[in-house]
Amino acid sequence: MFPSESRGGLEEYALTIASAALDRGWDVHTAFPQREGTASLIRDFSMRGVNYHELEISENQTGGKLGGARHLMRTLRTVLLLYRLRPNVAMLNLPITNQGLGSMLGCSLLSVNTVVVFHCIEARHSFGRHYLDLCTWARSRGQHWVAVSENNRQLLADSFLTTPQHISLIYNGVNLSRIPSPTEVKSTTRRQLRQELGLREEHQILLTVAALRPQKGHEFLIHTIPHIVSEFPGARWLWAGDGPLRERLVALVRRYGVEKYVKFLGTRNDVADLLCAADLFVFPTRFEGHPFALLEAMAARLPLVTTNASGISEVIEHNKHGIVCRKEDSCDLLEGIRYALRHPEEMERLALNAELRVKDFGEEKMIEQTLELLHSLGRKVGQS
């Protein structure tokens, strides 16, 4: 179960875990809101043999306050769905800490052993006592919490007044075999994609793969563009992803007079090809869990510039695997991009180190650890 109304890294993660469970012969169901942004996700789950159920997950609990009648009704619908399906084990994927309480309580009310994965935590939250008491009660009734980075695990523990040892850590992982290395990519593939996008071979492509949301920091990147193009007129920015900030970012690009340098690509299903066509991966994020996009860029041996947000330092070491800048700092981001474009040979060396480093974050390891946790909880049901 998850509360998403659009498609991104969390949703792809859920699809990956569900598909792996199916391969093991599990009977898999999924539940999330039916929206325009989730239509392709519903289709892909169904095509892989996962049973889809429309479900409105409880809304955000602003300030840690308990919800009203709508929250109660959504919790009731979760309980009814769980009662009808009677799963051996449930998995709840949450993008933030203050979302999904109703589903957590629903699982606990029916004593359904549940893995709760918190995918992204911006900062420590201050929750009210009643909220914390409910979460503690839910955890005491067969719930196992998981964080996707050490940074997020500590923030999660601080927010819920527990210790990190009570929360598991399972890093996200990418399918390394699906992302071709530069030695496997024919020059024709790179050239064809550039031609499709109206770009020439001499253009320097700076790629960002991220939803157009405040979290991802695109506005800090926009501030750097006029300065970069004054020194590197062949630089072009490709932004893959969509989201609520699209119109605002388009307007800001126009205000800076750099619209001819930036292409908004929207949601893409050919990210691996985009990585092959690009010269530099730029990831100006403000906070993260454990970003799939960054791992994919590393696997493609694409030189990268990112920020020191959240747990990124657990994966990328500055001047060893890439350039790491201060988050929310356009000046430092500018200097990082400028250095990368001035020193392509050095960036290739860092990219090779990153390609070796990302082997520690393979998809197979993530799947094995996650399914083993789900299986161990599911076995408890059979033993009771």
Summarize the structure.
By secondary structure, the protein is an alpha/beta fold. The protein has helices at 9-23, 39-47, 69-85, 101-109, 129-139, 150-159, 187-196, 218-222, 225-231, 246-255, 271-277, 292-299, 330-342, 344-357, 363-383, and strands spanning 29-32, 51-54, 90-94, 114-118, 143-147, 168-169, 204-209, 235-240, 262-266, 280-283, 304-307, 323-325. Strand 8, helix 10 (246-255) and strand 9 (262-266) form a beta-alpha-beta unit.
Structure description:
It is a single chain. The chain has 384 residues and is of the alpha/beta class. The protein is 43% helix and 14% strand. It folds into two domains: 9-173 and 363-383, Glycogen Phosphorylase B (Rossmann fold, 3-Layer(aba) Sandwich); 176-361, Glycogen Phosphorylase B (Rossmann fold), CATH 3.40.50.2000. The chain has helices at 9-23, 39-47, 69-85, 101-109, 129-139, 150-159, 187-196, 218-222, 225-231, 246-255, 271-277, 292-299, 330-342, 344-357, 363-383, and strands at residues 29-32, 51-54, 90-94, 114-118, 143-147, 168-169, 204-209, 235-240, 262-266, 280-283, 304-307, 323-325. The radius of gyration is 21 Å and the shape is globular. It starts with 8 loop residues before the first helix and ends with a helix.
